[in-house]
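Pilot study result, target chain (135 residues):
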Amino acid sequence: MKRSLFVLLLLYPAITHAGMDQRNNATNFKDRALAFCIAKAYKDTPTVELDARKTGGFYLEKTYFDLDADPKMNALIDKYLRYDYRMPIEGFVDAKFDLLKCIDMYHSLELDELVRKYVPHPDWIGNKPPENRRK
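Predicted structure:
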């Protein structure tokens, strides 16, 4: 058994205990976008980038959505990370506010629109609704 799978199996009870299995597809989709935004924002910080990317990958297994959303999600992430949030206020001059950009993207109407367009069962809890619910 691969080490990463072994670790995931060991952590699975903790993840599910933390409420992971109680979140619906819409929330998981948005959380996935947030994780990938953080990964992109902190690509120069390998431990943060890797953890965020793996978190986003984990949501792929926990969320039922149209994979055509991925390029749209990536474009939205890029759009928010390009925003200039610099402040000429003492103590904030050197801040890029990348995390704030990701949080703003998470709460954006654009991400809500992606959920409406690409998550066919937003209230479903689990990674795939039963076949009879897909229609």
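One observation from the pilot: The chain has one domain: 3-120. A full batch analysis is planned for the follow-on phase.
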